[in-house]
Amino acid sequence: MQLSREQLIRAYRQMKTIREFEERLHTEIQTGQIAGFTHLYAGQEAVAVGVCENLTNEDYIISTHRGHGHCIAKGCDVRAMMKELFGRRDGLCKGKGGSMHIADVSKGMLGANGIVGAGAPIAVGAAISAKLDGNGRVSVTFSGDGACNQGTTFEAMNMAVVLKVPVIFVFENNHYSEHTGHKYAVGSGDIAARAEAFGMRVWRGNGSDFFDTDQIMREVVEYCRTTGLPAAVELDTERFFGHFEGDPQRYRGAGEVNRLRQERDCLTAFRAAVVSANLLDDAQLDGIDVEVLKLIDDAVADARVAPPPEASQVLEDVYISY
Known about the structure:
Elements: H1 5-28, H2 45-52, E1 60-62, H3 68-73, H4 78-85, H5 119-133, E2 139-144, H6 151-163, E3 167-173, E4 176-177, E5 180-181, H7 182-185, H8 191-197, E6 201-206, H9 210-227, E7 231-236, H10 256-263, H11 266-276, H12 282-305
Parallel strand pairs: 1-2, 2-3, 3-7, 6-7
Antiparallel strand pairs: 4-5
Helix pairs in contact: 1-2, 1-11, 1-12, 2-9, 4-12, 5-6
């Protein structure tokens, strides 16, 4: 399916926003103003955007500890996200969630999660609610190649098939489970085949190629909406930073990251594809770059001076009363 000019511009803007958000965090974290562990998503933008561009606000996503990209792709407010990471009371979660527990239910973003593999069962629960409501929603859980080894993920996939619910298991294979290569850690060497063994349809694609990811997700989302059944997708991608900020990355080969940035940068590939096909030009894309950089600069400036939560607010928003 040919994407419209507006769709192409939106996809590029979303990917560029994720990249600059993460690149800026990489710098800001060194100042010490951002507390807690942070895991950056740079390099994997085509997955988040390729998935979420095929979803609606009513659809659900469950993220991982590496969740900023998923938040932005699902439409969460970038300025409020930055304030959240700075621990400000006007942050997306009032400064109490931080990087690994950021969420925005109004956008269908049910939360990042610091526990590897913990999102899959939540996504199945969300899919059960969608099935009971009968409104055609789907639920998506993002997982890495590390989470594919977790028992929670296996149990969730089995339950999804048994209960016949519309949940999509998206495995972002960035080749490292923290510091361990996937070729060693994934015994079968085939993440998608594991999901297939539970009885669901699977797809595989290039997660560094927005167009491949987008096309696959169109098929997957349509399949799940129309059948009400689960599915799984394995997308091969790369992360450009360490597992966490401060990771010395001694497990990576000499020059590996530079090579990946040159050969598997989804933004570079997107720009080359649309310009060569005369769908967009460099001037249009450069203009988006300028707008995104200003958005990130403004978000950081606002977050630096925004007030933190008051001590009296420490017990607020801890539990939700239904």
